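thoughts on these tokens:
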Amino acid sequence: MEFFAVQYMHGRMQHPIQLHLDKDMLYLGNELFRPAFVLWMLENDRFINEYVFDENYVLTVLDQNIEEYHLTSDQYIVLGEDDFVVKRIAEK
């Protein structure tokens, strides 16, 4: 499974931010894009200087088939062997 592009967008930002996934993150059963992971990606990318982070963001994900998915802060992805499943974070 691979992703062609992942963009982070927040309503208080003028432009989206391209997020970069390392290949070693793409393994069977891995969970991607929970809010803590998204924040970690923003904080640890040396090319990202400014961003707004809270629960009001949207990720636009283009998969290897150029299918577009929009994830909000209450959604994440679980990787399969050749695909993935979008799941919702359970409410407490």
Summary: The two ends are 31 Å apart (CA to CA). Strands lie at 3-10, 17-19, 31-32, 57-63, 68-72, 75-79, 84-88. DSSP finds one helix and seven strands in the chain.
